[in-house]
Amino acid sequence: MDAATAGMGDPSKDAAVLVRQSVVLPKEGSTYEGVVAVDETVGVDTKFIFMFPKLGSIAVSLTSPSAKRFDLNSPEYQEYNSTKTIQFAFNTAEVGDWTYNIEHTAPALVKQVVTVSVRSHPQGYKEPVRVRAWVNRLNAVYPLKTVIYAEVTRGYTPVLYANVTAYVERPLSQDRVTLQLRDNGAGSDNEADDGVYSAYFTTMNSNDRYSVDVRAETKPGMAMFKIGGGSGVAFATPGAMEPVRKVPAPKMNRATNAGSFVVTNYTSGQDPYPPSRIIDLLVISYDQDAKVVTLEWTEPGEDLDYGKVTGYDIRVGQSFDEVSAGFDSSSKATLLEVITPLGAGNRIQAKVKVNGLNDTLLTFAVRAIDAAGHYGEPSNVVSSAAFELEDLGLNGSQIAAIVGGCVAGTVLIVGIVAFLAYKLKHAASAGKVAASPRI
Ligand SMILES: [Ca+2]
Ligand SMILES: [Ca+2]
After folding, report:
1. Which ligand is nearest to the CA of 194?
2. Hey, what domains does the chain have and what are their CATH numbers?
């Protein structure tokens, strides 16, 4: 082994961390019950480790997925007084949901904090699912934007649609802020569906060091492995462009520490953060009889992608330039009903009345407004014209090629124009509902 590889080991042999948390037990008799999924990508050499503050202060038991109970009388149980640790060790742990129960058993002790850690090794030579987390800057000079990232992968394969949460400890108030990290391409997230989840941290309240823990969990039937496509994590094989497939991922838990960062230059009472730019505005439907267009987008937050905005500024125009470059001077859309923001990450709709407008080409863009009156950047531009194209029998990618003409090649456009001319002669009566492309 040379100097470059000494100490690195084989990453596929490293344990995956399933649980990493502190449990507060307020008084004698208090109990805590936690559940952890041992998934099929791990299970070998599995350890449940409980660190406690004082000898004899806790009793711990486990229940396996097949309802077998383990406690201090089980051979898997070991107690280490020197390190104040209780450990259950399994050569192979049953796959499924394990329950751990911790009881406060020290009459003389009031509140105690127990640290729980569950680690498990991969089966065979396969990589387990892992979560890796980091913060974009060690020195957060307020109001520079601080971003928390977490990458959930199995080897180079991204895990999509996981529930990824960051917990940021705030030293001054001794509380912690819970942030939902998202992989939707909006706000702080650079690319949707690449297995890298992120969120801005905007709720600092002192000049201090903040530490970050991250948990990722998947629910059965929701999370997917994204296989192929040649995108995703940074070290994907160059040039690999097999078609993207999504394969169901099992239920699992992972936890890690994202390190810490130091905030300086913070002063209270400021609001330096406008809402994030909306990037996924869509025309959901166009009721040509009622002259009502329904728009939909993912909500940003009061501060970038955190919190709830106070409202939206929707503009309507007759060309793409009118509501993009000319957003400020374009016409405000007339709403059919008031929009009530729900909070960052939610999908929200708005119904816009377009009577009196020439509907040959209607364009829309939106920006969010926060409590301080700050505006987010104007969104992507969408058009109702997509509906008429849809009515002619074009599919989504053909429509995208026309409406997003700058993306399409000239030959394709010429081809589609010819196709359109043919279809116009044979067009049936118009329908009303279709998806519109992103611009
Ligand atoms: Ca992403
Ligand atoms: Ca704000």
Report:
1. 1
2. 11-121 (2.60.120.260), 129-264 (2.60.40.10), 282-385 (2.60.40.10), 386-426 (no CATH)
